[in-house]
Amino acid sequence: MAALAWSWRIGVSCVLVSTSLSLYLIACGDDDAAANKGDGGSDATAALTPEQMFRALQPELLARCGGPNGVCHVNGSFNQAPVWLGNPDPYVSAKAYRGILPASGDPKDSIILTQIEHTGPSLQSTPALLGKAQEWVAAELAASIRKLPAAGPVPVVEGQNTIDLSKVVPGVTDGAKLTFLGTTQNNVLTMTNLKVTAGAGSGMRMDSPFFVIVPEKGKTIADPNVNGFSGEMTVLPNETKDFYSGTMILLPFPAKTQIKVVFKKLEKPASLDGGAGGECTALGVFQSSAIPAFTASVPLVEGGTSTCVFCHGGGNETAVNAMDLTALGSDPKTACAQARNWINFSDKSKSLIILNPTGAANPNHPVQALPDNGPVVSGIRAWVDAEK
User: Fold this and answer.
1) What is the pLDDT of residues 265-280, one digit of tens each?
2) Dihedral, CA atoms, 222, 227, 231, 232, nearest 10 degrees?
3) Are residues 332 and 228 in the same domain?
4) Of 267, 298, 327, which marks where a domain is finished?
5) Cα separation, 380 vs 354, whole angstroms
6) Residue 118 class from Cβ within 10 Å (0-12 exposed, 13-18 middle, 19+ buried)?
7) Disulfide-capable partner of 345 in 47, 276, 288, 365 (CB 3.0 to 4.6 Å)?
8) What whole-number distance in Å separates Cα of residue 156 and Cα of residue 230?
């Protein structure tokens, strides 16, 4: 066995360990690692484009991950290594390789940042280079892929599991959750009885969610084509529905692996019956009946009084996110259209804009339950009944 050491001008020293028969290990290190703590931050990189950032670290990546004469991740001739620094342009190759710029839009999910020592070295063992790669991945994602709404990562147990969705999109997913039965065997996770529950204050409209596999050690897998669902789905307030097909199988899934759920889109439904939103059709009744109701004094659970428009008109961010009445005084037509989203046109008596003030819907609503035949509820109902 012989060892050959060489040094690149870029400051990376490498050792090639070989036998007379074959190359079997490549180990490289950054000579400047001790001088760089790998915090990934620099004033210089802030002014560079993502491509310029990659070009600056490209020689180090080729030395670290490509191997002598590109046998590893340049041409894949050694052990059929994945080619993600391929010719004629490593930059184009790296951007195109699935998982380097993860579909979740979260730099932490990139496979080159989460890869551990394997047949070759990992970036994690050279903090300086890892920091530069982190900066590049983050810059590419910021320029082309927004970070998608996500929950987790969370551990998985045998049996019943719950993923808390309440903080994913404040004002939309408050109180929401995803539940499933988990069974693991032979590094495979089988998820059955997958269900999603919306909170009391808002329904949810989601688009093409997928699961991200986050192992204790090794590459994160964020692949919506394999571990996800397609299409939109709407869940009404307090409703529990099957989460798309209701089942999912994730692999590889070794012990102590966690999962995230990511949504291509997660927002408040256009209307609570899934499609009756739109412009106000009874603006006159809105102005004569609903506006006086929204501006009337109402008692609060914690004592004192307020008005609906105080919170929904800008006094409480969560309330505004749920029903935006900030234009009530300046543009009643816009405010009417916003409030109209909370009418259940399939059964107007079940509209949240009526149920919430009476205490029959959101248990966290700050207003004391108002009488169903009182002036506030009656004023809102008169407008709701007039909308078409």
Assistant:
1) 999 886 554 344 567 8
2) -70
3) no
4) 267
5) 7
6) exposed
7) 276
8) 24
